[in-house]
């Protein structure tokens, strides 16, 4: 009995039209006291309504599967990106129906359930499309697709429940990796915001001998091959390969700052995955080190096919900590793990010049053995505040403080460059582009 109740009665809802009809019947009974000529009209009207109600219920429940609905998503969602969600609906009733569709989305979005209304003719199939943008990594629980439908009589509605309890993992941003793949192989990198870098010197790794064509450097002519072939032949060279590229991610409290829903750690993770992808496409090896008050994960640099998936799987669960990063442990780990000169891209943030100076001794030691690039962040809110005209004394004070902090950030970059440490001071939304641009520039200049 309980199952029958849940199957039929728990999913049956009275419509507004039924309450309006019953209200009219009540009015007829009231009017009958004053107008005797109404006779049995109120009773007949009430009987007709209940007969129509019974017919409505039978029509809705006669077809066991009058409506079909399914949710289509990717196997995993991409953090910080718009992820497409599709709901496909089919009407198997012999008449057209109006549907109200509620998709129970995960609580992390802090939104009311997605609510859609549409009309389906008999046999029609329609799709609902919308996007979700997660801002935290982890597991996201989707609930039911609730579909409310009614017959043309419209006195009651029946609820259908589909696709309940679906859990999707939210991984670091991977939707735009295809775009960065094009950046790695395209000659027109300015389309992606990558500036062209003049290539310095000649790469030392020989590639092949080919026929001379207009525009080839005449200094690369191979005279021995030319003599054998009877036509001009030139040597071609390629960028040196199999260099180690390590992304070092700071997970301490300085990376908790939010920007457009994502923390600085999330931006650093997304940029690390994109850089690792591009480095592997350029035939380099990608590795990872994470740290906070202790060393977290260490993935030695490799170029095997599963390397990027391993990096993503590790970064999927990383979270910020509440303490400062242990730079001494980082230096010891780099010295013990990385045996040859490599590119180390250190994603961190500095709250003040004194904070940088506390870490400077370790940064200088790391830069003695490896090519170190320190990536830290602009405060875009302060930048916006500094460009806004002040309206009163308090506004002048706020603007002055903002300009002071902006100037201090630039001083940090100069302080790093003074000791031969490369730096990238960037806004969070331009982080990935700027980091990949720096990597390609270093490759073009043969510094790695």
UniProtKB/TrEMBL annotation:
Record protein name field: DUF58 domain-containing protein
Keywords, ordered alphabetically: Membrane, Transmembrane, Transmembrane helix
Pfam families referenced in this protein's UniProt entry, alphabetically: DUF58 (PF01882)
UniProt KW Transmembrane helix keyword: yes
InterPro entries found in the cross-reference section: DUF58 (IPR002881)
Species assigned in the record: Pedobacter jejuensis
Occurrences of domain DUF58 (ranges): 209-373
Regions that span the bilayer: 12-35, 41-61
